[in-house]
Amino acid sequence: MAKAKAPFWPDTETVLLDMDGTLLDLAFDNRFWLERVPAHYARAKGLSFDTALSDLRRQMQAVDGQLQWYCLDYWSQRLGFDLEAMKLEHRREIRMLPGIRDFLTELTTSGRQVAIATNAHPAVLALKLEETGLDQLVGRQYTAHDFGAAKESPRFWQALESEMGFDPATTLFADDSLAVLASARRHGIAHLCAVARPASNQPPRTISDFPAVEALPELGPVPPKL
After folding, report:
1. Pair (16, 125) in one structural domain
2. Which of 70, 92, 114 is the last residue of a domain?
3. Do 106 and 177 fall within a single domain?
4. Is 3 among the domain residues?
5. Of the residues 11, 50, 82, 209, which is catalytic?
6. For 1-19, how does the pLDDT look when each residue is reduced to its tens digit (9 = 90+)?
7. Distance CA 5, CA 3 (A)
8. DSSP structural state of residue 206
9. How far, in Å, CA of 59 to CA of 64, rounded?
10. pLDDT 10s digits, 154-185
11. Residues 188, 168: Cα–Cα separation, whole Å
């Protein structure tokens, strides 16, 4: 795995951060989509768990990388039950990855423009901000649903750049999704960082396509902007 170093800080004016798997522990979402949703779907349809999981994976693969993949409204309508209510039921399991609170405090006091850029549905974003207080650490949050295009799409990056006015040549973007990082690279984002351990209950992945860290605090200490 190509270890991400931090010589880019003097050249970095803007920092864009994914939320799930980058700032927040992806263990919550993995349990939700790989255990709770297929179990509920299996009961509703009279299927075995394995059959329900296989069916869900097939349906999700059909919209992989598209905004529908991340849309609670789309899946609630398609599956026939309220996914937002299910998320609310288990909200106490939402938590930050280790060291993120201190890292964000250091980052946001460095004088750089910092924002969360997520594919999460607005209701999910609001829930996770309320549960974790992330909005108290990073005051600007943008979801792909605001722009009508997932982060995998060039339209997302064009819209976000227009909204924020950042310069891709002086921007750092961190995400656990390699497809999203590839999209950011095509847009010209100069500094990219993959998160190799998005879920605390899983081992780190081996990543070769991008500089990577197990967790964002490895990019610290963050010096003040020159």
Report:
1. yes
2. 92
3. yes
4. no
5. 11
6. 666 766 789 999 999 999 9
7. 6
8. P
9. 9
10. 999 999 999 999 999 999 999 999 999 999 99
11. 6
- Token output for 216: 């964002």
The answer to whether 193 and 211 have CB atoms below 8 angstroms apart is: yes
Which residues pair with residue 194 across a beta bridge? 175, 212
SS3 category, 119: coil
Are 19 and 34 part of one and the same domain? no
Q: How far, in Å, CA of 204 to CA of 97, rounded?
A: 13
pTM more than 0.90: yes
CA distance 92 to 88: 8
Find the domain containing 108 and state its range. 9-25+97-219
The domain total for the chain is 2
Are 175 and 20 contacting, i.e. CB atoms less than 8 angstroms apart? no
Residue whose entry in the numeric block shows the structure tokens 């297929």: 38
Task: Pick the last residue of a domain from 92, 110, 137.
Answer: 92
Q: Which percentage of the chain shows pLDDT scores above 70?
A: 97
CA 200 to chain CA centroid, Å, is 15
**Tokens at 53, concatenated:** 């999981």
- Is 135 part of the annotated catalytic residue set? no
Asked if 199 and 124 sit in the same domain, the reply is yes
Tokens of 207: 């990543």
Q: Are residues 118 and 19 in the same domain?
A: yes
